[in-house]
Amino acid sequence: MTRFEAAEETERLKLFADAITAHRNRGSTVMTVDVDPESDTTESEGEIPPWIQLAGTEVVLDCTDAELERLKDLVGDYPEFRIDELESPEEAEGTNAVVTARSDANRIADFFERAFREVYELEADFKAWVTQI
Questions:
Q1: What are the distances in angstroms from CA 9 to CA 14, 19, 47, 49, 75?
Q2: In whole angstroms, what is the distance from residue 125 CA to residue 2 CA?
Q3: 15 phi/psi in degrees, rounded to 5
């Protein structure tokens, strides 16, 4: 990989797929995609911009209650994906969701894109950074 950020859907999909492939080829523990704070127009003061991690076949993300409902709807569009774990610690606001995603890099990349756009309701021009592979 030679680039680590993208702000247009086609480029983000390629970035995500390339990062997933590199993650798998390297056998790394985790891959992380963060949203540039300046492109997260839904961000409230003090909130951390959305992020998604991939650890092997597990997609990990944090959700508010409303985002979790949208995530459940999104997972319904991917028959090969399933929500395997939901954890809502008392000291945290929201839920950590673990989705098993047994699929190819392009399909998981599509899921990442749709999660950022539909679950987190980001605008079409949001910038994503691959911060860990």
A1: 9, 15, 24, 18, 20
A2: 21
A3: -60, -50
Long-range contact pairs involving 42-51 (C-beta distance under 8 Å, separation at least 24)? 42/120, 42/121, 42/122, 50/116, 50/119, 50/120, 50/122
Q: Which domain holds residue 46?
A: 5-132
Classify strands 81-87 and 95-101 as parallel, antiparallel or unpaired. antiparallel
pTM of the model: 0.91
Give how many domains the chain has, as a whole number: 1
Q: State how far the Cα of 35 lies from the Cα of 16, in Å rounded to an integer.
A: 12
Chain segment 31-59, per-residue pLDDT in tens: 999 999 887 555 455 578 899 999 999 99
pLDDT at 118: 98
Name residue, tokens 């939901």.
86
Q: How many helices (H) and strands (E) does the chain have?
A: 3, 7
Which amino acid does the sequence have at 114? R
